[in-house]
Amino acid sequence: METFTKATVLHAQLVPQLCRRVAWSVLRLSSTAAAPSTTPSSELLKSHVGKVYPIPGKELKTAIPHALPKRLSAQLDTLGQAGWVFRQQSFDIIKSLFDSAEDSTAPKPRYLLYGDDGNGKTVCTYQVVHHCVKAGWLVVHVPGVLSWTHSKAELRPSAKHTGLYDQPDEACKWLKSFRTLNSKFISQMKLSEEYYWNKKEKAEPGEELVKVIEQGLLKPNLATEVVGAVLQEVSKLHKKFNVLLVVDQFNGCYNPTSFSLGRAEWAEPSQLRLVQLLEHYTSSPSVFSGPIILALSRTGMMRHNTATTEPLDLLGEKGFEHVKSYKHLLVPPFRYSEMKACLEYYVQEKWISCLTNRVSDSPSAVLKELWHVTAGNPRELEKLCAFC
Question: I need a surface site. Which of 253, 287, 323, 324 has the fewest CB within 10 A?
Fold first, then answer.
């Protein structure tokens, strides 16, 4: 944390001069950044780690139909594609997923990603989702639990579960994204059991899942329970398809919400039906037998502060016990070579366009200066380059 604090101070002091120098210096470096974007997921090679691979905008919007964070959507809007450094952690997860898919008897991997703010945990989840979608997996992706627990949308008492609350707008958003991401699967899926939405309405076994999702979108008051039905049906598909569950900002399931119930009383995360569903399906392999990737984040947290980004601090004792069986995977800052590859990509795509006449600047010296200013933090590097 001390290094990052110093970097933040240096950032404000050195951004102008560094931004004038970085493009020229990087252009003088040999270009080895871009790995082919068309590489099939099943043929991922270790040699791609640490390099940038671009994902076309259209392909990205299909794999990740949710709204991207601002810093990532800015890159997509400007370049028409997303270029992300392929991290070692992403490779390790993808390899273990594909290996487990080939052995039906092997236990399915479960990962918990954690690390300092801006190190790239969310991007790692995107990389995993993208490659699994390309490989033909059914992916259940929840991109931000904190957007549920701090939503400004309506909170409505559940008609089915006493003491719980539905989130019709958030449930509809998620159903739309799930339908876009998995359209080829849900067109073949039918309900395996009966579902009651409330005291009067229900869905019968054999009904097409796509029609059930449409019903939830047409009647938002049913949408939250439809999400529950979707998760229940997907949890039974592990013998038919490769299924992956990815949840970002999972600590939102245990951090305070922004929903006031009056008289200084706040809704607990466990009172939100959507959050309760996530807790249930990430609890044990007997509930959801497929692989699961969880990520922690302080971005978007409200009414709660933590001194560190360690899992115990972000999740509390209850949440930490919930993920005790998961493999905890630290996402560190960029390595020096990863930062270099990232800058080469920015120059190649003209994201950095300001050149300087100070040709005497040493590329290694400038990169070292950038390295100390950003502390290898990917988010800080993007912020710095955005000033150019």
Answer: 324
Tell me which residue of 284, 280, 264, 283 sits closest to 272, measured CA to CA.
280
Q: Which tokens in the block code for residue 176? A: 């739309």
Q: Could you list the mean pLDDT of each consecutive 10-residue stretch along the chain, which spans 388 residues?
A: 44 47 40 38 68 87 80 82 91 92 88 96 94 92 95 91 96 96 92 91 94 96 96 88 96 95 88 97 93 94 87 96 97 93 85 51 72 90 72
Whether 110 contacts 290, CB under 8 Å: no
- Which token pair is 26? 């990087």
All residues at 6 or more sequence positions from 257 whose CB lies less than 8 Å from its CB, including other chains: 149, 150, 266, 267, 268, 269, 272, 303
- For β-strands 265-266 and 260-262, DSSP reports them as antiparallel
Q: pTM of the prediction? A: 0.87
What stretches of 193-315 adopt beta strand conformation (E)? 195-196, 202-203, 243-247, 260-262, 265-266, 292-295
- Interatomic CA distance for residues 8 and 6, integer angstroms: 5
For 62, residues 6+ apart whose C-beta sits below 8 A from its C-beta are 133, 180, 181
Tell me the backbone φ, ψ of residue 90, rounded to 5 degrees: -65, -45
Convert 66-77 to b/e letters by CB count within 10 Å (16 or more is b): bebbeebeebbe
Give helix then strand counts, H and E, for the chain: 15, 13
Stated as kind and residue range, the H or E segment containing 56 is: strand 52-56
